[in-house]
Amino acid sequence: MNPVAKFLVVTGLVLVVVGLLWQVGGRFFPLGRLPGDIAIEKENVRFYFPIVSSLVISLVLSLLLTVLGRFWR
């Protein structure tokens, strides 16, 4: 199989799995409302920066891509 096609298929499957986990797991793991996420609410302004959620997503994706990269070779 062409390497580009293989990459697209794997990427699509990963996105589907992540989407399903996000939909189902959102009830149990409140991604976006973790301690450390910055939320400032004033009268007419609402500022939200999910820094800890971003770090968690980055860590999970890094681990997943590392495992897939080693498996792919």
From TrEMBL:
InterPro entries on file: DUF2905
Coiled coil segments of this chain: none
Transmembrane parts of this sequence: 7-25, 45-68
Keyword field: Membrane, Transmembrane, Transmembrane helix
Superkingdom of the organism of origin: Bacteria
Name listed for the protein in its UniProt record: DUF2905 domain-containing protein
